Amino acid sequence: MASRRLADRVALVTGAASGIGLAAAERFGAEGASVVCVDVDPERSAAAAEQVAGTGAEVHAIAADVSDADAVETAVRAAIERLGRIDVLMANAGIAGTGLAHSTPLELWDRVIAVNLTGVFLTVRAALPHMMERRGGSIVATASLAALSGVPAQAAYTAAKGGVAALTRQIAVDYAGYGIRINALCPATVVTPLVLEAYEQRGGDVDELLRERGRDVPLGRLGEPLDVANLALFLASDESAWMTGAVLPVDGGLSAAMAPRHTPPAD
Predict the structure, then answer these.
(1) Engineered SS bond to 29: which of 12, 55, 72, 130, CB 3.0-4.6 Å?
(2) Regions of the chain with pLDDT less than 50
(3) Domain membership flag for residue 238
(4) What's the pLDDT score for residue 261?
(5) What does the pLDDT read at residue 260?
(6) Do the bridges between strand 180-187 and strand 247-250 make them parallel or antiparallel, or are there none, so unpaired?
(7) How far apart are CA 76 and CA 64, in angstroms?
(8) What is the DSSP string of the chain?
(9) Domain that includes residue 80, residue range
């Protein structure tokens, strides 16, 4: 049941068109926030905003590529102009990118880093001056369990998400004096369009690969977007007021296990 933990607040979510971003936008809206849905695809961003509006929230859709500094600045400025402020920022947009270090094309490396790491930096950088002026704000960055341990054949993705975890800690230290908090989510495999794309890139039977991966998880299943969105809501709310710089696994116990029972192929 919604308890309006984000009443009278404004939340901006990148990568809001699907998966974890959409689930978080809906949870924020259901808890009373006005929500800005940002995604690279204008049509999908608008569709997400329409879905989030079903929670009763005021919602705005903005199209922006998070790897484009000007586009990000424009999106953040537009959100502030429309709604007056940003209290919660969820830097969530990301892309897949499978490959071993010796065979990952530079173009793929650059694109994965640009979206998954630089995109978080640009989004946070654009919002920080506003939050500094208001002396407060909660930032939630989506990293990955890949930020905490190696994942077969994910060189660029793991490097990018590890960077998000490190950047989270750094921003926490540098901006705590302004009342700005930042924490990072580290999901294990969550069944989202991004994860399905990553598994398709590996080849083979995607459904069987996902079932195999689910058997590795101590709690016996893969994650759902709502599993992560619920933690994002906690971090966005005042319930986590004494938390900043945390890099938190959301993984069904996977990081607590010594080793998975089924290791996916490396190539």
Answers:
(1) 55
(2) 262-267
(3) yes
(4) 54
(5) 57
(6) parallel
(7) 10
(8) ----TTTT-EEEEESTTSHHHHHHHHHHHHTT-EEEEEESSHHHHHHHHHHHHTTT--EEEEE--TT-HHHHHHHHHHHHHHHS--SEEEE-------B-TTT--HHHHHHHHIIIIIHHHHHHHHHHHHHHHHT-EEEEEE--GGGTS--TTBHHHHHHHHHHHHHHHHHHHHHGGGTEEEEEEEE--B-SHHHHHHHHHH-S-HHHHHHHHHHHSTTSS-B-HHHHHHHHHHHHSGGGTT--S-EEEESTTGGGSSS-SSPPP--
(9) 10-189+224-248
In-domain check, residue 4: no
Q: What is the pLDDT of residue 11?
A: 98
For the four alpha carbons of 253, 259, 261 and 267, in that order, the dihedral sign comes to positive
Counting the structural domains of the chain, the total is 1
Q: Provide the CATH number for the domain around residue 169.
A: 3.40.50.720
Kindly give, in sequence order, each residue whose CB lies less than 8 Å from that of residue 70, ignoring residues fewer than 6 positions away.
Answer: none
Alpha-carbon distance of 241 to 179, in angstroms, equals 10
Which one, of 21, 78, 16, 58, lies nearest residue 41 by Cα? 16
Q: Are 97 and 111 in contact (CB under 8 A)?
A: yes
- Tokens for 208? 């069987």
How many angstroms separate the Cα of 179 from the Cα of each of 90, 122, 125, 132, 244?
A: 17, 20, 16, 8, 10
- Dihedral through CA 28, CA 15, CA 74, CA 236, nearest 10? 30
Amino acid at 192: T
Catalytically active residues, by annotation: 157
- 261 lies in a domain? no
CA–CA separation, 211 and 118 (whole Å): 32
In this prediction, residue 259 carries a pLDDT of: 62
Q: Say if 60 falls within a structural domain.
A: yes
